Amino acid sequence: MKFKHLKMKISVFLLFFSIFQITASSGFSQVKMDFALKNVTLDRVLEEINSQTGYKFFFKEQVIDLERKMSITANKEYIHTVLSKLFMGTTVKFDILKKQIVLTTIITKPKEISVEIQKNTVKGVVTDKGGNFLPGVNIIVVGTTKGTQSDFDGNYSIEANKGDVLEFSYVGMKTTRIIVSDANVNNVKLEEDAASLEEIVVIGYGTQKKTNLTGSVSAIKSEDIVKNSTSNISSALSGRLAGLVTVQSSGEPGKNQSSLRIRGVSSINGSGSPLVLVDGIARSLNAVNSNDIESITVLKDAAAASIYGMRAANGVILLTTKRGGSKTPVVSYNSYYGVEKATRMPDFLNSFDYGTLLNEANINDGTPAAYTPDELQKFKNGSDPDRYPNTDWIGETLGTGTIQSHDLSLRGGYEKVKYFTSLGYLTQDGIYATSGYKKYNFRTNIDVEVNNNIDVQADFSGYYEDYKSPASSTGTIFSGLMRTPPTEVNKYSNGEYSDKSLHQEIYDSGYGIRKDFTFQSKLVLNIKVPFIEGLSLTTQVAYDRFAGRRKNFTTPFTYTLFDAATGDFSSSTPSDRGETASLSESSDQRSLLTVEQIVDYKKTIGLHEFGAKFIYSKTESRRDYLDAKRSNFVGTTVDFFTAGDAETRENNNFAVETGIVGYAGRLNYAYDEKYFVEFNGRYDGSYRFDKSSRYGFFPSLSAAWRISQEDFLSGSDIIDNLKLRLSYGKLGNDGERDNLPAFRHFSVYTFNESFIDDGSVTKTLSSSGIADKSTTWEKAETYNVGIDLSLWNGLLSVEADMFYKRTSDILTTQSLQVPGSFGGNLPLKNIGTVDNKGFEVVLGHNNTVGEVSYHANFNFGFARNKVIDIAEAADVDDRIKRTGRSVGASSRIGWEAAGLFMNQSEIDALNANAVTQTGDAGAVYQAQNPKPGDIKYSDLNGDGVVNSEDRTIIGFGNVPEINYGLNLGAEYKNFDFSILFQGAANFDMYLSNEAAWAFFNGGKVFGDHLGRAQIGTDGNVINQDATYPRLSISSNSVNERTSSYWIKSGDYVRLKNIELGYTLPKSLMNKMGVSHFRIYVNGRNLYTWSDIKHLDPENPQSRGWFYPQQKVFNLGVNVQL
Amino acid sequence: MFNYKIEEMMKNIKIVTILLFGILFSSCNDDFLELEPLDAIAQDKIFKDPGLAATYLNKVYSGIPNGFNRGWYMLDAASDDGENAYSWAGSNSRFNTSSITSSNSPFNGLWNNSYRQIRRLNIFIANYDLLEGDIKEVNRLKGEAHFLRGFYYAEMLKTYGGVPLISTAQDLETDDLLVARNSRVETTDFVVADLNEAANFLSNATDASASRASLAGTLALKGRVLLYEGRYTESATASAAAIAAADGLDSDYQKIFLEDGTKEVLFDMQFKDPDKGHWGNLFNTMKSTGSISGWGGTGPTQNLVDEYEMQVSGKMIDEAGSGYDAANPYDGRDPRFYATVLYDGAAWKGQTIRTRPTGSEHIDTSGDWTKTGYGLKKLIQEDRAHGDLSIQHWVFIRLGEVYLNQAEALIEANTNLSGAVTAINMVRQRSQMPDIVIGTQSELRAKLRHERRVELAFEEHRFWDIRRWGIGGDPEVLTIYKVDMDAAGTHLGKSVWETRNWNAKDVIFPIPQGEMDKNSNLTQNPGY
Fold first, then answer.
1. A746: which chain B residues are within 8 Å (Cβ-Cβ)?
2. Which end of chain A is more exposed for a tag (fewer CB within 10 A), N or C?
3. Does A111 score more than 60 pLDDT?
4. For residue A427, what pLDDT band results from cuts at 50, 70 and 90?
5. CA-closest candidate to residue B327, choices B312, B345, B315, B350
6. A734 burial type by CB count under 10 A (0-12 exposed, 13-18 middle, 19+ buried)
7. Is B17 on the interface with A (CB under 8 A)?
8. Residues of A in contact with B39 (CB under 8 A)
9. Given its phi and psi angles, is residue A76 left (phi above 0), alpha (psi -120 to 50 degrees) or beta?
10. B39/A contact by beta carbon, under 8 A
11. What is the pLDDT of residues B276-293, one digit of tens each?
12. Residue-level pLDDT at B19
């Protein structure tokens, strides 16, 4: 037993400066523990505490009675509580020093207690905010030496006069003071100290006390993720972390992950997505069942992320999963059931209004009205639904989806082995029955202590995903819903579906399935080198495998035709139309091997703490892909290639190998928990570059000063914690994450598209481009200044960071500079530069008023980027120059709308001016013959005419510059309540086609179009406040130009999550034999405030052809045995 | 509990420690970063193996812009022969409204594409002496490379005029990349030199299909380029040589465009299910309430319909004694009319076309309905669902054109008018049209221009002919007519559908603005 070796007969004083440096490994970050021991020795209890927390005991053997027998339970209790219970009624006193617990015998001072007898006795009970009794709370009368501790049931009793101040202190709780009043009973409720100095944060290759961090890090605990009851973790992070930008662009089951960006956009390439590491290995967030999460940390600045070097330029997200724990196995069951509905769908006009506006459009176009008043009436009264229908396409096509999740886990330990194992199941049905997603997760994390110096971890996990969808794409279905007017029939009166109906696309078009299995494994060997205290060696090997299969069977379907003249129905079958089924299938195999060796050294000399780490890391991957296709199937029953036409067979495959290597190091130094300096560096090599330019070195330097530890502040009643952080670092990016082409240092030829020679199929061969051995890493340099502040015992906490990031040597195309007559596929060059600046603020507030304890957390992030250089031609017009603009905005070039033309005389005057200014008799202000009610564009260059030279960069980009979240929570007795608002601002959406234009492509109209410019008999606009141009049924190219008219601010605030929970009282739970039982209701995306009314503001697609984001109502339960 | 003795344990730890450091240092070898693409071939292998070399050239053939792939319209919709039913084919409307600028020209893509292919050819030509194998096989590949380079430069020549002549693959670091334009004459000479070289090689080479260069195709292209450039005598000679090298005309006019491998086709681009297709059928099929419904696409104009002579008399419909019946205008016309145009009453895909008002393919000013009252039949596969990828080939050069090129060159040279008459009649006889007779140079010029229009409709000739003949601004070219009918199908004559714009600059197209910006040595064409 580990701690027995430490039962050394040395004095407590010496121990304080002990050379035994105890390392805390990541699994021991919890300082709460669970166990139930009956009739065991003290020795056994200490062992249990040690195994759960990593705390070591130091004591003189003759003083402590290790054979004392007892029964004791701990239920998520702090070590302090447990120790108090343990030594209640004995003379043993304990002191917790870092991770060491020193046991001594209390030297009783009988004099102090016996002498003063006449005083007033104050009594009461000390509890936590949940009403649990707190034993062992230290209570002193301020200004005296009088003190006591609360007993096993939280009772205390102390002599004090009226007006004396009692101070209650307890580890992990805020120190609380009360003034003694006349009342003899003073019950005290202590609050958890949110800014607990002991909070441990997962960082790159290790953990760190939050107070000792020098970099910029945001962390979220597992409870907050589980709270979201969402099918994916990426969306659960939305609004929770400062500096994290989330955009959820689809609500489709299994495809509703949010794209994540840390501190916005910093490069012109690719997704800007951060590196995600699950238990230290590059894996998808999706790989983890949200109930398995222990913590998520976001490393934002270079100091925090640089240990990951080349893959860290876009920031790093670290996710750790739960590991084993107490000897008493804990079984948890978590489940929820929810119903889902689109957050927002367009408000389309009914067929009467549609017809009325269509007639108006016809009149505007000078063509005969489409419908007579009589016909319009029939649309309204529904008397002839086959000829004059009023179809609510969305209502008739979409329904509600459901989501269900079950998760069972077992967590425990025995002797030297600890285990965590879980099974998860999630099933989500779409808003139409043929779409759905199922996910099965398993995980087993095992920790074995081989001996005092060797630990082994073995983790196995995997997940199977099963997607189903109609063969018709989501785009086809939603474009149909967005486009087909209400005057078309969905279902005829004979019960059959029309050719316009989407019913067949959804139910009869065949199926698409996708079945992906991912297996992940990791083995860790951890050796503490004996005789060199503080030195440990770790080897970890992870091997992940992915096997994906997709199958798409497209079948033609029958629909009904209606002859309006005769009133006859007929069906149109696939064979009538000569349509047949087709099948495509693909297989995707991937493997990823990561090998890492870590040397770690720690040493403390007096108040000086040193740490050093060296890491060797290599990752290799391979992907093998194969697909095949056949069409002209015989019938639709056999969905295998044998039923297809061999002449139509197509097949293809490819394979890709990658490899990266990194040598990383970290040196840190701390003095007296006041001053911290850290250096991180990584020397990285990537297969993507030529030998000569393959390696890059990415260092960072950071420092922190805990001002609150200085003497002048340490006694402050206001400031609990004040820390200043500074960092600078450089990170690299090899382009892998941006999907840039690899192997640019070779000029090789690959087979390309088919070429038909004399009727037979051959191939083409083309070069990968001109070889360039000089291209190398994209670099991102980041400066960060941060401040952490905690006031009034944690009543208010502030965390603020400011950053400046310059990304340079961005790989971009030279074709902007090289004449086309060169004719080559130009290699990418390291030429671009982008700046990104911003700040984040997190404000926290915790308090207890009466029996209600509540907390509020507000986080706000702002990041604005600017293109500094993209090798733009010198004479590009300023208005369309990308340099100096933001990355996202600069690709949107169009005209600036200046409202609508209101009357012909306005147009005539501008045309006359155009003639005068240009001296060209044929000149007009704006081409395409605009009429009153059409959009007027600004003549930005003032030459009298609007042409392509007046175009400019319009609006913001698609990625919000501002992201914020407000999280409020309260607990009262057994109820808990939380609410999360999440918002984003400074981004735009360009809405066009179906999503914006009336009658687009024969399509429908929105409620928004009622605000159209109405044209009077004189041809001028009647309603000066028109919000939409004059209607026209043919596409009106005057109005449909890319212009600011169609740009809508995407700013929104969402009621992202709201949850009300009730925990059954202990007495009831005990009867049921469970230790914890909570039920809750939860709502997600319930309400959204935004300028864009008819589509979800996170809509990715300017035409509205997307599966909408979902609002969800859940009912759930958390049970623990 | 563990029963390790301390010494034993320490020994084990030492062993593990040594092993671990061993692994650490041995794994510092970074050979695994030396990866190569798994499915690629090095250049030196390609130029040894004729099979791979042919595959290399396939890429260059594939890059030739074909008429079905111009952005959802046929180039002839930018001539008085055609009108697109929908207005959103932006580049088509830019032609017809004369609103092309150096930034929005539909031919802006041609520049980079051509030079990209020319670079490939320059690399090929520089290395083709490495080829090993049968001399006739090697000659064929060498000939193909020169043919292709000539072809691309010829495309640029007719589009932009003279262009920078790049004959070796430039080096990014050492060569001056800011090359100025060569003159029109220099460019023409360069093309002719390449085609001569190609002809040399191809005259002693293995035979190949029409989708690769042939001797006849090379000579035909040479005749065309010289005709366009006004070098009539040389042109006539080249066309005559092409005719001699070719296999003669096909008897079935319509089949030439729908089937691969007809003998008349000298150079084409082929398609096949499911490997390579285009959308020609889909976007050109008429919009209909019946089963044929497509996107509308390019339909013939009344202007073109009126060009078809009466078959029996061989006279234009407005000529005295032609036999034309205005009440039944579609009776008795040149057989090529029935092969080219869908009109009210035509049979198509098992139904009868009705373009009259209220008809299933009715004429309409809005939507995707035909604007002129006609639909395209030539080049469109009747037996294929319009929603399927189309697989009919695109014909770049065919013998029918070569005869007319020869005739035009002879007329313009004014040296052998009877030779021109013979050539024109070769083409007419195939379509059972009466012969024309000899006349003056200008009479024959009119006959020839008429014949080209009818014979080569929708094959992307009229667009360029209008320009080189200088008739782009003529009112009859700019005024587009449609047919007038009542709901019963009674013909009421024709009326103006659209009047198009034309400016002098439109005879040629601008150098792309992006190129002007990058290369200060380029000069822009007048008017842009």
1. 36-37, 40
2. C
3. no
4. very high
5. B345
6. buried
7. yes
8. 654-655, 750-751
9. left
10. yes
11. 999 999 899 999 988 887
12. 60
Tell whether B32 is within 8 A of chain A (Cβ): yes
- Per-residue pLDDT reduced to its tens digit, A391-415: 999 999 999 999 999 999 999 888 8
Banded pLDDT at A104 (limits 50, 70, 90): confident
Chain B hits for A948, CB-CB cut-off 8 Å, are: 101, 103-104
Residues whose CB falls within 8 Å of the CB of residue A545, separated by 6 or more in sequence, listed in order: A518, A519, A520, A589, A590, A591, A592
Residues with Cβ within 8 Å of B175's Cβ and at least 6 positions away in sequence, in order, are none
- Whole-angstrom distance, CA of residue A1015 vs CA of residue A58: 91
Q: What does the alpha-carbon distance between residue A257 and residue A1108 come to, in Å, rounded to a whole number?
A: 13
Single-letter code of the amino acid located at A666: R
Q: What is the least distance, in Å, from the CA of B101 to any CA of chain A? A: 9
* Buried/exposed A758-777: b ≥16 CB within 10 Å, e otherwise: eeeebbbbbbbbbebeebbb
Instruction: For residue B66, count other CB atoms closer than 10 A to its CB.
Output: 17
How would residue A721 be classed by pLDDT, with cut points 50, 70 and 90?
Answer: confident
User: What is the distance in angstroms between the Cα of A719 and the nearest Cα belonging to chain B?
Assistant: 47
pLDDT band at A883 (very low <50, low <70, confident <90, very high): confident
Whether B2 and chain A come into contact, CB under 8 Å, resolves to yes
The CA distance from A927 to A54, in Å, is: 78
Could you read off the pLDDT of A737-777 as tens digits, one per residue? 777 878 778 778 888 889 999 888 899 998 878 888 888 88
Answer for the pair A1081, A303: CB distance below 8 angstroms, yes or no: no
- Comparing CB atoms, the residue among B20, B99, B276 nearest residue A539 is B20
B190 touches chain A (CB under 8 A): no
CB–CB contact A650 B104 (8 Å): no
Reported as a single tens digit per residue, the pLDDT across B94-130 is 899 898 988 889 999 999 999 999 999 999 999 999 9
Q: A922 CB near a chain B CB, below 8 Å?
A: no
Which of A597, A631, A759 is closest, CB to CB, to B23? Answer: A597
Residue entry with tokens 């088509």? B92
Q: Which of residues 850-909 of A touch B (CB under 8 A)?
A: 873, 875-876
Cβ pair B366:A616 closer than 8 A: no
Q: In chain B, which residue's Cα lies nearest the Cα of A362?
A: B366
From the list A685, A766, A1033, which residue is nearest B30 (CB)?
A685
Do residue A367 and residue B365 have CB atoms under 8 angstroms apart? yes
Closest residue to A822, CB basis, from B88, B115, B269: B115
ipTM above 0.85?
A: yes
Lookup: tokens for B49:
């193996």
B465-494 residues touching A, CB cutoff 8 A: none
By the CB < 8 Å criterion, does A687 face chain B?
A: yes
Q: What is the CA radius of gyration of chain B?
A: 29
Per-residue pLDDT, B22: 59
DSSP letters along B8-31, please? HHHHHHHHHHHHHHHHHHHTT--G
Residues 81-100 of B with CB under 8 A from A: 87-88, 99
Contacts of A1037 in chain B (CB under 8 A): 87-88
C-alpha pair distances (Å), B274 with each of A665, A854, B210: 55, 65, 20
Among the listed ranges A68-82, A415-429, A797-811, which one has the minimum average pLDDT value? A68-82
Whole-angstrom distance, CA of residue A957 vs CA of residue A936:
23
Q: Give the range among A29-43, A475-489, A974-988, B8-22 with minimum mean pLDDT.
A: B8-22
List, in sequence order, every residue forming a beta bridge with A732; answer none if it has no partner.
A779
pLDDT of residue B499: 94
